[in-house]
Specification:
CATH superfamily: Glutaredoxin
Structural class: alpha+beta
Radius of gyration: 12 Å
Distance between the termini: 25 Å
Order of helices and strands: HEHEHEEH
Low-confidence stretches: none
CATH class: Alpha Beta
Number of helices: 4
Strand content: 25-35%
Length: 98
């Protein structure tokens, strides 16, 4: 969990994707997140977190539905939503915090 603190305590926005390999919606989000990361470049970070390998963190953040997406900046959660999102929506949301 201390590593998680380091990840979110940055001045650039961090888009987190909580996913599971077996979930179809999560699989479909992989390409979307690649596009988001490419569009944002170094203005933001896109980080994928496997809920099965990070059960303690997922439980602490009450991740229930997959995929669950969150935006953090300076250690503070700015936005959160479960379910699939399109690339343009995510890019727009992250840009609000750049």
């Amino acid at each position: 969990m201390s590593k998680f603190g380091e990840i979110i305590e940055t001045p650039v926005p961090v888009l987190l994707d909580f996913y599971a390999d077996w979930d179809q919606a999560c699989q479909e989000m992989h390409a979307v997140l690649r596009d988001v990361a490419a569009a944002l470049g170094d203005k933001a970070k896109v980080i994928k977190i496997d809920v099965e390998k990070n059960e303690e963190l997922s439980e602490a953040l009450r991740v229930k539905g997959l995929p669950t997406l969150m935006i953090y900046k300076n250690g503070e959660m700015k936005w959160r939503k479960s379910g699939e999102q399109d690339a343009n929506t995510l890019i727009g949301l992250v840009k609000e915090y750049v």
